[in-house]
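**User:**
My hope is that you can spare some time for a protein that puzzles me. This is the protein in question:
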Amino acid sequence: MKKFWYALISALVFIDIANAQSLDSFINSGLKNSPLLYDFNNQRISGKLDSLLLLATLKPQVNQLTQAAHFPSGSGWGYDDAITNGGNYSALLNVTQPVFTRKRIDRQLQTIELLNQTIKLNAKITVLDLKKSITAQYLTAYTDFTQYTFNQSVLQLLNEEQTTIKVLVDKGVYLVTDYMNLQILIKAQGIAISQSFIQLKNDMALLNLLCGITDQVDINLTKPELLVQNNLNPENSPVYAQFRLDSLKNMNSRQIIDLNYRPKITVYADGGINAITPANVPHNLGVSAGINFTVPIYDGKQRKLQYNKIDLAENTRIYYKHYYSSQYKIQFDQLNNQIIMTDHLLGEIKNQLTDQERLIELYRIELEKGIVRFLDFITVFNNYTATKITYLVTEMNRLQIINQMNYLK
């Protein structure tokens, strides 16, 4: 039984650094393989193209118009010549140019820009959600991994002690039933290893699926180091930024409504051939120019109704913003209290482990002298392993709380 306890600790903390898999590597894979982030990137590019398309409307629009129409008529039938002139043969080059539209274009460009900012914000929120989900699943998988490696180390040490106990049984220091109890403990430990391995594989499969990577044969996760990075300022949250964007959208919508009630001017010009008979085509080459001027006068008070809709949207935005700020603080305080209670619990469990370690060391000495029953040692050792696993799980739960705090939105 010599150095039993120290060997157990060494086996538990051993990690193969060369083949270790870190949380950052899974997060990077998840962000790289996310189809939603790929979609957001293409939407941003599409938004830039929309701006270019809108700017193109500021330039003159040139069209070629061709028409050849004949209206046959006879005795007692056919269209009135006063309307049709018997036919129409034209080939015109038409140019139109809206004027004094820069302010309208600027408002429309602002609409596109606000939409692009919303897309960027949604992409940022998606990144945070993805990081949070991957971190949470990684912590779950790492909890399985620590239990699996711990169970393996316990089994290895129990197998090593089996020979020592067999010698003591042969000398009459312990009974055959003590040796049988050790064998039962070894078998139970093997079952625990199988169960923890199955759970580890399942949770690793979910982690790989979330990150968009293929299953990995070797599993060697490293313990993540998570610190609280949230400063309890809801205004730094991307969700809060959405409220600011919504306010800008409402202001922009109001300005667009105002611009729609300003006069609209369009100048036009065309040139080419326009004749009513094919014979006149060579002689009817000409040009024309004009201006269209439109002034809104009355539309049934639609402008006021549109203002009312914007006011309702703004009131709703303000209400949601206040509610969000309140809920954000409540959630943060709850998570912070959970951290405090979990830290206190970890301290109690750690003290319990210290006492159990001392007791195991005393039992180790007394076992070699045949003073205590081996069954009592098994009970003490089982209690220790249960407490150790509880400590590992509680430690990972603490990291889960920190993960929720860091990605609170």
